[in-house]
Specification:
Strand order of the largest sheet: 1-2-6-3
Radius of gyration: 15 Å
Strand content: 15-25%
Order of helices and strands: EHEHEHEEEH
Number of strands: 6
Largest sheet: 4 strands, mixed
Number of helices: 4
Structural class: alpha+beta
Helix content: 40-55%
């Protein structure tokens, strides 16, 4: 199966909304989506991305059921990784110590649309 990975792209509200709409298309065509985000712009990018993804999938499906999306699951970045890449991980003076991971597959659309 195809897997599309989008990493560290939710730092702008417009980009997050656009990415959600585009990745809805790949899910509807059979690919699994994996998105990662350290929570920039106070997590608004995550919320905008998931809402845009949900709206685009619902608009393209025949389902009258509410589609429930998973949340971003938070993962701590190990200290040794932070030590190795400290300068590369800075964004506006912020050092990211964790990253959220979101995984959504075509099977999730079918299960949710059936109301299961």
């Amino acid at each position: 199966p195809d897997i599309v990975v989008a990493s560290d792209l939710l730092y702008d509200e417009e980009a997050a909304a656009s990415l959600g709409r585009h990745l809805a298309e790949v899910v509807l065509h059979g690919a699994t989506v994996v998105a990662t985000d350290p929570g920039r712009i106070d997590g608004r990018g995550r919320a905008i991305f998931t809402e845009s993804l949900r709206e685009a999938i619902c608009a393209s499906s025949d389902s009258s059921h509410e589609l429930q999306l998973p949340s971003f699951e938070e993962h701590q970045i190990p200290e040794f990784v932070l030590d190795l890449g400290m300068n590369a991980m800075k964004y506006g003076g912020q050092v990211d110590r964790s990253v959220g991971v979101f995984v959504f597959s075509p099977a999730d659309v079918k299960l949710n649309s059936d109301g299961l």
